[in-house]
């Protein structure tokens, strides 16, 4: 699978950025950031599922292709 829509890449990046923001947080701040991460992660999974259904691809292959596309275009957001 090589044709990954920009929207899927954007959603995956957003989820990874929200995950990276969890570092060092505790208590209520952690809980709030965890909710943001879960919301972003849910959006990625929904978009991957929709893409897989629309193209007839295996959702795991779509997810892998999205993650690979993000890795190729961006360093780890936890480092930024």
Write structural notes for this entry.
The chain is mainly α. Helix content is about 75%, strand content about 0%. The protein contains 3 helices and no strands.
Radius of gyration: 14 Å
Distance between the termini: 29 Å
Query: How many strands, what sense, and barrel or not for the largest sheet?
Result: none
* Fraction in helix: over 70%
Following the backbone from N to C, one meets helices and strands in this order, namely HHH
Mean pLDDT: 91
The residue ranges in which pLDDT falls below 50 over 5 or more consecutive positions are: none
Please give the number of β-strands. 0
Shape: elongated
> Helix count?
3
Summing up helix and strand content along with how strands pair, one would put the structural category as: mainly alpha
- Estimate the strand proportion: under 5%
Q: Quick gist of this model?
A:
This protein is mostly helical. Helix content is 74%, strand content 0%.
Topology at a glance:
Layout: H1 6-20, H2 27-55, H3 59-73
Helix pairs in contact: 1-2, 1-3, 2-3
Question: Which key terms come to mind for this protein?
Answer:
0% strand; mainly alpha; 80 residues
């Amino acid at each position: 699978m090589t044709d990954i829509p920009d929207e899927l890449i954007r959603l995956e990046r957003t989820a990874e950025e929200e995950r990276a923001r969890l570092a060092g947080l505790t208590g209520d701040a952690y809980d709030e950031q965890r909710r943001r991460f879960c919301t972003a992660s849910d959006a990625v999974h929904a978009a991957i599922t929709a893409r897989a259904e629309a193209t007839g691809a295996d959702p795991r292959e779509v997810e892998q292709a999205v993650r690979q596309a993000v890795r190729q275009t961006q360093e780890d957001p936890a480092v930024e």
